[in-house]
Design goal:
By secondary structure, this protein is an alpha/beta fold. The chain is built from seven helices and 21 strands. A hairpin with a 2-residue loop joins strand 13 and strand 14. The longest helix is centred in the C-terminal third of the chain and has 30 residues. It comes from Anhinga rufa (African darter).
């Protein structure tokens, strides 16, 4: 039979998963204007003031002339080649007439689990192009198998308070050096800079291992979801965006509801997450009619409960989130259509070609709310409904029996 274009794309694309690199944005560099309370770098007439009880590491790129400088009781100045400090000799400096006290800003509040303080980068540190592919909120901060980058020639201080005792990572790059083994990381922690750069009740552990499962690995940040969402809402005005749709969706591992579509996939051992993402990107997302659609796809865990109340366990699934940047009456219609195309492709090829055993789609747009489910998911719900009815009938029968026996009034 003739091969359809989605199957052709999936066979041409490589299946190997790629590492994810996340770079810390803030720094504590001396030359960064936002690190000073006056919004500018100190100049010759100024008195520099570091709070004596604030622990800090500060990278200095160039030479500076200052009137005076008060240092902290516990901290470090990391000097680049040629950098240093000299006392102001009283000569006129055309760019520095104020001669005031300039204080270094507080860096204690910068938290590891703040999504806005991280950005996705390439292995070389270049910013990844933004737009079509996005991450749900829990995955915007470093995940279990991610590589973390702190920019070369920068200092930083980050709060690693966590609900977990240990935060696992594949590797950490600092000052241009990649630490990708437990031994290398343990050696760095014994040095003088680590306690000045990292503080809080958590600890970081470098494993050097990549995700071993071709179906993907869950991020692992669920225990700190409350920290992620609190930080995200504080950065956006303490509330989620106002949405146009009547019944917005709540994606798993995401802080706020969205308009658009979600698809949940149950998968077989043959499922390859990277290969399937490439299939969707090249076969659907790149089409001009979906130019306004953004997509997130990852493995997440869905909590299972007994009778809808008692926590029982969690089940891994592949979640696809589609959102539409269009505004007005057409909000999310392109996302809805792309979701329908994905469901049709799954129906045509199923578990043999794609490694997908069942699928369920939910759509929320500005004008409609609809729910569609794949055949496998629908059969499970039908079976669950039958068992629920049988349980209810048995319960009523038991009550009637006890009533007839006079043991229940």
């Amino acid at each position: 039979p003739p091969m359809d274009w989605l199957t052709l794309v999936s066979r041409l694309l490589p299946a190997a998963a790629t590492a994810v690199y996340k770079q810390w944005i803030p720094n504590t560099n001396f030359e960064t204007a936002s690190n000073w309370d006056k919004g500018r770098v100190p100049c010759a007439n100024d008195v520099v003031h570091f709070e004596k009880n604030k622990v800090i590491s500060v990278f200095v790129r160039s030479p500076h002339v200052l009137a005076d400088m008060y240092l902290p009781l516990n901290g470090e100045l990391v000097l680049a080649s040629g950098a240093g400090f000299a006392a102001f000799d009283g000569s006129w400096d055309p760019g520095c007439d104020s001669g005031t006290t300039v204080r270094f800003a507080d860096a204690e509040h910068r938290a590891w689990f703040a999504p806005t303080l991280w950005q996705a980068v390439s292995p070389g540190g270049e910013l990844e192009p933004s737009g079509r592919i996005f991450s749900v909120d829990e995955e915007r901060v470093p995940c279990h198998y991610d590589d973390v980058i702190f920019q070369p020639e920068t200092s930083f201080r980050v709060n690693i308070d966590s609900s977990r005792r240990v935060i696992h990572l594949r590797s950490i790059s600092l000052m241009g050096q990649e630490l990708s083994s437990p031994e290398a990381w343990a050696g760095y922690l014994q040095g003088p800079s680590a306690p000045l750069q990292f503080h809080g009740n958590g600890s970081l552990q470098v494993t050097g291992t990549s995700c071993p499962d071709k179906s993907g690995c869950a991020c692992g940040n669920a225990p700190d979801r409350h920290r992620i969402c609190t930080a995200l809402l504080e950065a956006s005005g303490r509330q989620c965006p106002v949405l146009a749709c009547q019944n917005p969706l709540q994606p798993l591992s995401h802080c706020c509801r969205v308009c658009g579509a979600t698809i949940s996939l149950d998968f077989t051992p043959d499922f390859d997450l990277q290969k399937y993402q490439d299939r969707l990107v090249q076969g659907l997302l790149s089409q001009p009619k979906y130019a306004s659609v953004r997509m997130a796809i990852s493995k997440v865990h869905k909590a299972q409960t007994f009778l809808g109340v008692i926590p029982r366990s969690s089940t891994p699934l592949i979640q696809i989130v589609l959102i539409d940047d269009e505004v007005g009456a057409q909000t999310s219609t392109a996302a809805e259509q792309m979701a329908a195309d994905i469901m049709e492709d799954i129906t045509q090829h199923g578990s043999k070609a794609l490694g997908i055993s069942s699928s369920k789609m939910e759509v929320a747009t500005s004008s409609t709310f609809s729910r569609q489910e794949g055949s496998h998911a629908l059969s499970r719900i039908t079976v669950g409904t039958v068992f629920g009815l049988l349980f209810g009938l048995l319960l009523l029968g038991g009550i009637f029996f006890l009533y007839r026996k006079g043991k229940l009034r």
